[in-house]
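Q: Protein A?
A:
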Amino acid sequence: MKDKKIKGERMQEQKFYVLKYKIEISYATLVEMMWKIYSITQEENLINAIQEIKDFRGNKNMNSIVSDAYFIEKLILLEASGDIHPPLNIGEFYKDVIEVKTKEVQQ
């Protein structure tokens, strides 16, 4: 697990690129979005977590997290199209975020 944490910290300093839209996103930003989603839903399946968050549409207090959920949903579609470089398995990345961040919180 220590290796995963070190790898995760190193990854957070890097960025990935969404080729179709010519934007770059830091891994740290994605980690933050995913952790917020998990913290609210406690759902380990990313698709289910996104669906739960999308149910909060219209709730002004949840606008930011709902936007994050839609953004990650779009990333999943772009990932399937091969438009993310370097390739990123978003579902596995979400599981890694849960594992690492949960251990950080417990310490």
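Q: Protein B?
A:
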Amino acid sequence: ILRSVGGEVATLTDLLPNLERIIGRQPRTGSAVRGVEAQNRFHFAFRQFVRSACTPDRPAVLVLDDVQWADEPSLDLIQALTDAEGDDDPPLLFVMCYRDNEVDLSHPLSFLLSDLRSAGVKTVEIKLDNLRKENVNDLLADATHMRPE
């Protein structure tokens, strides 16, 4: 992680303080920045962090639930992680769950998904309907090792 992220590791630990448990407290290098430059530094550092954690031998799945409530900086980070940069993209699969009845065409998530598709990122949409009572009964029976009634 330290080799991959380099001098920007403090950018990560500012927002992910528990990371210090893994890499230890790191000195801050460089000057403090704000606004777009701070966001760019964080995106770079986070991409490098993900690249160090995900390898062809250790692919990862990142599950994000209730993405319809994600703020724009979070959606920007998803965009930054999926921006194609050649062969060094990490083997990372995003599973983004959201309530489609809360996401219309003007929702920021709709714009993100459209941008991802336009950039050639492969997306698959799976719509889930409500489970029937019988299905819930079967799931509970299986989980509790009981016979369904």
